[in-house]
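Course assignment 3, question 2. Fill in each field.
Student: A.L.
Task: Predict the tertiary structure for the chain below.
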Amino acid sequence: MLLRLPELNFIDDKAGKPVGIQQHIGRRPIAAFGNSDGDFQMLEWTTSGPGPRFWLFVHHGDAECEYAYDRKSSIGRLDCGLDEAESRGWVVVSMKDDWKTMFPYEKTSSERKPAASR
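Answer field:
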């Protein structure tokens, strides 16, 4: 018989992320991807294992295309991760600077016609 109690098992943020991963897949991953300091402990845990490991932060720094997760964001802040990434060998990809197209199903600004000619 399985019984689910009305209590939290873990919180899937910060130090709770490695707990949840271990509980669900039962081992340390070899690659992890995140976008805020809430993923920092998951990154540390993933990259501290033996053998080759990969970690990537997706820096949501373009508030015009999507909500910005940046140093001064009220939620989804990415501050410590940006400071630590280079010295730890973690990859940071900027949505604003490194991606040409965010949503491929949308027309680019050069393909859009003025409202009067639609």
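Instructor remarks: The two ends are 62 Å apart (CA to CA). Residues 29-96 form one domain.
Grade: pending
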